[in-house]
DNA sequence: CATGCCCCCTGCACGC
DNA sequence: TGCGTGCAGGGGGCAT
């Protein structure tokens, strides 16, 4: 998916277009994405004013004046496109509802706003989803109740990570991908952060745990590089692997900066290291790392 | 509870 | 050119 930096960039693209606007026409063109759409999805949005466009981990949360929140996840291939100055009239969307063969390929939802803009959700793989949840229930909703900390917030400390890692018998890579620990990291940035920290993805998570009552040094190293990697990606406008696009249709260029991700067989970029980037599979997903400088 | 594995779906790059 | 294979940013759900 878009990982945290990409979702944040999408949020920043959507917010100025959506904030304070009303949903005028909403067209839902198929009954489901990863999950069925909520009953009456379009109707429940229409007439609502957007009071906030937020992000939690890899989720986008659009607060509505009526008290519900539109919760959206982009899955692996979800994408928004904004067309300003078109029509807000639902019938002009084309009347494709539930006619999956008749609309532009994979354009599953179209939001018409009171400022004449149209926001289209496209998702070829349909791993994304949209829900409507009362704002007051978000903290206790199953999606969010056990969600871990934001990696760019003040909660990411060596002590926090050491406590959560205590006794964990999983690979460090899998531990960092676990959204119940840190929410928002994905496969790319976990690989990148581990490289920057000089830590092997194969090491047991428990080796980050408490030593003599405090976090191990390597834990401090790791929590220091995680925000760096994410900020670099944000500053570069997100990565552009495969189908990621900004809401304006342009792509990011962080991929050029990857130290290990997708670089199997290429030389390690760490100065002073002459290793080669390897690809292994952990928990059915590719891990890229340098076995010579990541211990 | 913790951990490991499979799967959802489509598109694309690659080798033959 | 066409076809088969493997792989892709996530994460829910089930078996053990």
Structure write-up:
Helix 1 crosses helix 7 (217-235), helix 4 (158-165) packs across helix 7 and helix 6 packs across helix 7. The protein has helices at residues 4-18, 41-45, 142-145, 158-165, 172-177, 187-197, 217-235; strands spanning 23-28, 50-56, 59-64, 68-73, 79-83, 107-113, 118-122, 129-134, 210-211, 214-215, 277-282, 285-290. It has a four-stranded antiparallel beta sheet with strand order 1-6-7-5. The chain contains seven helices and twelve strands. It is of the alpha+beta class. The two termini are 28 Å apart. Strand 6 and strand 7 form a beta hairpin. It binds a DNA duplex (16 and 16 nucleotides) through helix 6.
What attributes does this structure have?
4-stranded antiparallel sheet, 23% helix, DNA-binding, alpha+beta, 295 residues, single chain
Concise synopsis of the structure shown:
With 295 residues, the chain is α+β, with helices and mostly antiparallel strands. The chain has seven helices and twelve strands. A hairpin with a 4-residue loop joins strand 6 and strand 7.
What can be said about the biggest beta sheet? 4 strands, antiparallel
Order of helices and strands: HEHEEEEEEEHHHHEEHEE
Q: Count the DSSP helices.
A: 7
In what range is the share of β-strand residues?
15-25%
Shape: elongated
> How many beta strands in the DSSP annotation?
12
> If strands are numbered along the chain, what order do they take across the biggest sheet?
1-6-7-5
Helical amount: 10-25%
Q: Which class of secondary structure composition applies to the elements?
A: alpha+beta
- In terms of quaternary structure, the protein is single chain
Mind telling me the C-alpha Rg?
A: 21 Å
User: Mean of residue pLDDT?
Assistant: 90
